[in-house]
Design goal:
This protein is of the alpha/beta class and about 350 residues long. The protein has a single domain, classed as TIM Barrel, CATH 3.20.20. The chain is built from 13 helices and 13 strands. An eight-stranded parallel β-sheet has the order 7-2-1-13-12-11-10-9. Strands 4-3-8 form a three-stranded mixed β-sheet. The chain has a two-stranded antiparallel sheet with strand order 5-6. It is globular and about 50 Å long.
């Protein structure tokens, strides 16, 4: 199986004309080199050549959209070490899962401003932990202003690719409508449907409401297992069938799909790419990471989970599969494709 996978990779790199180079989306910023969802990570992603930066959006107690991967913030901030906030720890059922910790919606923006970001996976990215304690949690407004400033500096257009996190939970349990908040904030900041912007969600309802109320480009996220939290009867497996994709195309412009749904175990494209594009949907793949722990066995180097493997090889397969965009933690490595530095990788030298 490994030989088949590597042979497929070699073919992909030998025939790059199979697809235009997809757009590069800095996943949570250049999160392979800086703590995720910080202005430093977003700025580095832009400097490394990303076409879009991706902030996950949660909301504060006083209704401000801020960037964190989850509403529970102890994995990515120092909140658990702050004695003044010890009484904020609680348990909540988020999308059917019992979660204990500290939640962004229980803090005002001023309180969140006192926290500092930290690396989420220091065991795999110890170099990122050097930046722990340096950065604040950014607001959506700060992210938009950063992008505008960087566009002037780098002399090119940069897109924003926000994800609304746990919208149904926040609406039903906390009374916070993140769809309303996002549309109001984008209007206040002067962001229009003409700007390069994709809005993504794993849920269906928020995207359908956004489709009814705006002309922003929308992305239905789909995973290898489970289904949308706001539609318990729906399964992602059914949503990515031809009939399911036609239904998605009625309200969305693209799907954001787990790489495992787009490439089979031999490294060849699954029918999903062609089926989605036939339905009029763009296909964006998530998430390309350089660490062995996130790569197929055939693309791991030295067999050590913390080590760096052949992420460029996997990118080559996604290009050959014809995807329209790729989320990556390391935009610079993707931009260097197909000229990987490590000659042990199957795509080395093209």
């Amino acid at each position: 199986m490994t030989r088949i996978f590597l042979a497929a990779l070699a073919l992909a790199v030998a025939t790059p004309a199979l697809a235009d180079t997809p757009i590069i989306i800095a996943h949570r910023g250049a999160s392979g080199e800086r703590p995720e969802h910080t202005l430093a990570a977003y700025e580095l992603g832009i400097d490394q050549g990303a076409d879009y930066i991706e902030p996950d959006l949660v909301v504060t107690k006083d209704g401000v959209l801020v960037a964190r991967h989850e509403t529970e913030i102890s994995e990515t901030t120092d909140v658990a070490t702050r004695e003044e906030f010890a009484d904020r720890r609680r348990s909540k059922t988020v999308d059917g899962q019992l979660v204990n910790g500290f939640f962004a919606e229980d803090f005002t923006l001023a309180e969140l401003r006192t926290l500092r970001a930290k690396e989420r996976i220091p065991g795999l990215r110890p170099q990122n932990a050097r930046y722990d304690g340096l950065y604040q949690i950014p607001t959506l407004e700060e992210i938009v202003r950063l992008v505008r400033a960087k566009e002037i500096e780098v002399e090119r257009q940069i897109g924003i690719y926000p994800e609304l996190k746990h919208s149904e939970f926040l609406l039903q349990e906390e009374g916070i409508d993140t769809v309303d908040l996002l549309l109001l904030e984008l209007k206040r900041l002067g962001v229009t449907e003409e700007d390069p912007l994709f809005i993504q969600s794993f849920e269906v309802g928020p995207l359908q409401r956004l489709d009814q109320r705006s002309a922003f480009k929308l992305v239905q996220l789909v995973a290898a297992e489970g289904g949308p939290a706001d539609e318990p009867a729906m399964r992602y497996a059914e949503m990515i069938t031809p009939s399911g994709l036609a239904e998605i195309a009625a309200y969305a412009d693209a799907i954001g799909a787990n790489i495992g749904l787009l490439l089979d175990e031999t490294g060849q494209a699954t029918p999903l790419v062609a089926d989605a594009q036939s339905a009029g949907l763009l296909v964006h793949a998530w998430t390309l990471r350089k660490e062995n722990a996130f790569l197929p066995a055939a693309l791991q180097l030295d067999g050590a989970p913390p080590g760096t493997g052949c992420d460029g090889s996997l990118f080559g397969m996604l290009v050959a599969a014809g995807v329209d965009g790729v989320f990556t933690d390391d935009p610079a490595r993707v931009r260097a494709w197909p000229n990987e530095n490590d000659r042990r990788c199957p795509v080395a030298g093209g």
